Amino acid sequence: MKIDDREQMTENRNKNIYFLISFFFFLSSAFCLLPSAFGKVYIDITSPGIQKLPISITAKGVPEAKEIEAIIINDLDFTGLFSFVAPEVPGAEIIVQSEVSVSLNEITVLWSIIDLVENREVLKKRNTASRKSIRAIAHNISNDIYKFVTEKEGVFRTKISYLVYASPGKKELRLMDWDGFNSIKVIPVGLTSSHAWSNDGRFLMYSSERNRDWKIYFFDINDFKETVLFSSKGLNLVGNSSPQDEIAFSSSKDGNSEIYTINKNGSNLRKLTHSFGIDVSPAFSPDGSSIALVSDRGGSPQIYIMDATGSGIRRITFEGSYNTSPAWSPDGKWIAYTGMKGGKNQIFMVKSDGTELRQLTLNGNNESPSFSPDGLFLAFDSDRDGKRGIYIMRLNGEEQRRITPKDTKAMAPRWSPYFK
Amino acid sequence: MKKILIVLLIIFAAGCAKKYVTPPLKSAVQKETVKETAEPVKKEVVKEVVEPKEAKLQESVVTATEEPSALKDVLFDYDKYDIRDDARPVLDTVSSFLKNNAAVNVVIEGHCDERGTNEYNLALGEKRAKAAKDYLTSLGVLPSRLSIITYGEEKPLCTEQNEACWQKNRRAHFAVTEK
To answer: What is the 8-class DSSP label of residue A37?
Structure first.
């Protein structure tokens, strides 16, 4: 689908809609696989030299079939784990066959996976959804195929929250599918800056400037209700949440920007840093034991890690004089961040002990990395094609793709967790 | 199925606090269900609910007040927030203005150029505003007459990508408010 079409869809959906949100719950039984298929892993993503799985994907029936086929191929292609073989050509190890039909309001996909090596059907399913939910139904099938061959959760039903420039001093908070479709406005007022997901994907936390006040807000996606989480004079910027639902943020309530934590109900405020300079952008490690942050205590903005109690602070970035916006990988081993090199911002990754530094981007300014919940991909923003937009890539820097329209100035992506 | 009501409250407040309330808009309401059935060994139900609900948000806009020509911007070096020598006469003038105009207060806005990252620049902009405030306080201006706000790189004066432009943007800006 062309970006223009995507925008058209977005435009239509947003017409007169203040915001619109989806959440999903899955009830599934354990009987997805035929008994003899149990235990067969087609792609072991933990192995160092992964062989791509040759796969054929075909959908027939109503015209929507081709769209569904394209979405599934796009999803699986981004992982880099599959090679696509035309159905009439030999060489595929598995084939996914779909038959798509529609009624007045519903679309139905009857699909199956056939193992061509063993020459038998190993999975068969029927998915039905509203005709407006073609993308959701296709992403569901992608997740099922991905899970079947890797035994891992796919990210194809996750979302990305991000900011869109509206006018000078005004940025709105938006949500979209991981592939850039179905963009919806969440918070269109004020100047929204830092934002983060709660661990269960039910809440968005963000900092917004309205009427010359920087407050931290909490937004319940189920109830569509905004509440103030933290308010004081000065600049209050939310970081992220620990697994124990403590929220890290920076505040200059006492005059200088320091790192704090607070419970999500607003209790138990704790001040963790006490330095003269700037301390900002705190990020809890996935296990909640450490906090990464940006501090200029050494004379330039650099990334530090401290214990969640505020003790044991140590610097982990030493190359360059402007390293900011740290994000932990879901396994807690890596920090992705924005570093300035040759006057341009680039995405880097470094082990949390400061070793194994890697540069992932080269062209333009690239900022604000955020890991996908499976830890295999990064979302970030870049101005390499002119207007700043949201991009995604694999962790090794491959397959860098713009997912927001070229004429929208978008930045600061935050990849959602899996929705529970 | 729930309906969504949109209440966007915009308050224009500056001197005369006018209040505008936009009429509530009714949005399209969607609720979607994705069903999966076993075929023949698989039984699975997937539900998708797209359910917009009521939300109330408040936005206030402070209209720009006229800025007396005495209040020039204080400029800063890249990634720095200390007061430069060339900024001292500017701040002396601001101090005199405030002493001669007891009926006004000022908001000091801290701004940055675009080269850094947005979040860090918000913190840096605040440091710049605070440095200007501290300097004015040291000249005898009452701290209660000076409030600060940071906009980081979000409200540039100049949008070209060169040092002359970036220098204009690295500033503490004074906006007058009535007492």
So the answer is: G
